[in-house]
Specification:
201 residues, mainly beta, Jelly Rolls, 13-stranded antiparallel β-sheet, globular
Length: 201
């Protein structure tokens, strides 16, 4: 990875700040992106047109306590959010996801800093399913999230929120970030985790 071409959905990034290419979890050079309280911006596009899946690997390096930092936040300014967010408290963090303000699915388990995790967000109609390391970690009770509008989104960030209040740009290493049209099954999410855990072996 020597440039920002085709990192997400074959849509080249427009610009960014405070990012660099670093080794991934297998120590392969230039195979992950380190956002040092930085971000990348993707172009305007219809990224979500119904059910979808987002997968990737994240290693949160540092965050201020009681803050929110977004892995991904695609929107129209401050409306029509689709986000995957890290919620940090006591230097532990949770994965959160939503397609609207106020509607959130949250992982119940604490995750450690400076540790690689595979995550997946699967949106099936009005149900958001969150996975950590291939394991489903949400229940129907806390995962109701309205399906996103099928529209062009104009402010699309990796590592930055469209809502600046009480938000900080991400300080983390990201790798293998993918957006799918449609949903992956439990088995497919587990296979994505296992196949990307073995460095192609």
């Amino acid at each position: 990875m020597s440039n920002l071409s085709d990192v997400v959905g074959k849509a080249d990034f427009l610009n960014g700040a405070n990012y660099s290419f670093v080794p991934n979890r297998f120590c392969n050079p230039n195979s992950a992106i380190y956002l040092n309280f930085g971000y990348l911006q993707a172009p305007t596009n219809v990224y979500f047109s119904g059910d979808f899946t987002i997968t990737g690997w994240v290693n949160l390096i540092y965050s201020r306590q009681w803050t929110l930092s977004d892995i991904l936040n695609f929107a129209n300014g401050q409306s029509n959010f689709v986000y995957v967010r890290l919620s940090i408290s006591d230097y532990k963090y949770h994965l959160r996801a939503s397609t609207r303000n106020g509607q959130v699915a949250t992982t119940p388990n604490n995750l450690n800093l400076k540790t690689w995790y595979h995550f997946a967000v699967v949106q099936i109609y009005n149900l958001a399913k969150l996975y950590i390391n291939g394991q489903l970690v949400t229940t129907d009770r806390n995962a109701f999230v309205e399906s996103p509008h099928n529209i062009n989104r104009t402010t699309n960030y990796i590592g930055k929120s469209n809502d600046p209040i009480h938000r900080f740009n991400l300080n983390a290493i990201l790798s293998d970030l993918k957006i799918y049209n449609g949903t992956l099954s439990n088995e497919q999410v587990m296979n994505d985790y296992l196949s990307s855990s073995n460095n192609g072996i």
